[in-house]
Specification:
Elements lengths: L4 E8 L6 E4 L2 E5 L2 E6 L1 E8 L6 E7 L3 E6 L3
Parallel strand pairs: 1-7
Antiparallel strand pairs: 1-4, 2-3, 2-5, 5-6
Length: about 70
């Protein structure tokens, strides 16, 4: 069976170069685009000195955009 993959785009409105973790695994820094199969993912955007951003994301459409604001 073919596992369909979809795009997740993650950015921050206020901080560049924040680290992105998906399901606890570091994927890179924002802005970031990753291709993942349909499913549910725990997304964390982290940068020293700021409050982390957490969101549970369900990928069920072709593109998911996340705009994280760090506190």
């Amino acid at each position: 069976a073919i596992r369909r993959q979809r795009q997740m785009c993650i950015e921050t409105g206020n901080e560049a170069d924040a680290n992105v973790f998906i399901n606890g695994e570091e994927k890179g820094t924002v802005p970031l685009q990753v291709t993942l199969p349909y499913g549910t993912y725990e997304v964390e955007v982290f940068k020293d000195g700021f409050t982390s951003y957490h969101q549970t994301v369900q990928i069920e459409s072709s593109v998911v955009h996340i705009s994280a604001t760090l506190g």
